[in-house]
Amino acid sequence: MSLRTSGIIYRCNITMKDIRHLDLNLLKALDALLDDRNVTRAAARLGVTQPAMSGMLTRLRDTFEDPLFVRAQRGIEPTERALALAIPLKQVLGEVETLLQPPVFDPATATQQFTIASTDYALRAIVLPFVARIKRLAPHIRVALVLANDTQLLTQLERGVIDLALVSPEYTCQDLHARKLFDEHYVCVLRQDHPLIKCQQDLTLERFCELDHALVSYSGGGFRGSTDEALEKMGRSRRVTVSVKSFLIMPDVLRASDMVSMLPSRLVTDMTGLAVFEPPIAITGFTNMAAWHERTHRDPAQRWLRQLLFDICLDLHAQCEAGRVEQTGTPDTVI
């Protein structure tokens, strides 16, 4: 058997005798060491002592005839041979785990752990109601929520670091399964007692441009967005005086000031202290996607989790559409 990585081919010289004597726990130890890059943390994950983990590493080195890991400033770093084993190892362990799983997934008694990666926007708009329903239907399941890392998304899904990612389409790829969850649109948000509202004034384009604006810059420090591009095409401009890196802090920024911001509609649904208007300018929205790896595509628990997510998004979409139909459509309508 050969493994290929970075243009180098490694041949595994494990004899049939070695395979017969290779303990599955050794493969789980190697997987934990590759994930944690730290002997102590890997031992804690498997529930063994550090000396026991060190002993398993010694046996692994003998089996694969390679050091596998070398000491580094903060733990250990894998050799090229170890890196070559990482993805095939995940696949083998995943297949073994599937063999040991019951054929039918019962959420009421399940004890699995799921790790969901998400943007900060999706955490508020989708994941909170999603987790609430998970805990109602599967009370013993554990859910870890982490922020999506766009540059490492594919690797994390391949290695099983995360099970499901909620991202925009540009961060999915042909190596992943993906499904559209919904399309989002932007609304104009101010604090509930903003002077504009107290004076019962319409949010015209003129007044929109005169207000102080705040925007979200994921890269950090940006003061320009798609709203500015749309305004320029109309010969207009606005004044952006505050830039934040997270959508989650923006509602508090608006509550504490007379600024206005263009935010995704689902982010501010049912938020207190805020007034929401249809914007006086058309801004292109965005699409939210769910992405997962082939490694978990047929797993019964993972399929249940994804279907629950799809059902939640359908329900939320229906609620949003119903809410929009009830509005009069005037720019000064508070949603």
UniProtKB/TrEMBL annotation:
Superkingdom of the source species: Bacteria
Keywords: DNA-binding, Transcription, Transcription regulation
Cited Pfam families: HTH_1, LysR_substrate
GO molecular-function term, one example from the UniProt record: DNA binding
The keyword DNA-binding is annotated on this UniProt entry: yes
Residues in HTH lysR-type domain copies: 22-79
UniProt-listed InterPro entries: LysR-type_TF, LysR_HTH_N, LysR_subst-bd, WH-like_DNA-bd_sf, WH_DNA-bd_sf
Record has Ribonucleoprotein as a keyword: no
Family the UniProt entry places it in: Belongs to the LysR transcriptional regulatory family.
Protein name: Transcriptional regulator, LysR family
Taxonomic source organism: Advenella mimigardefordensis (strain DSM 17166 / LMG 22922 / DPN7)
Lineage, opening ranks: Bacteria, Pseudomonadati, Pseudomonadota, Betaproteobacteria, Burkholderiales
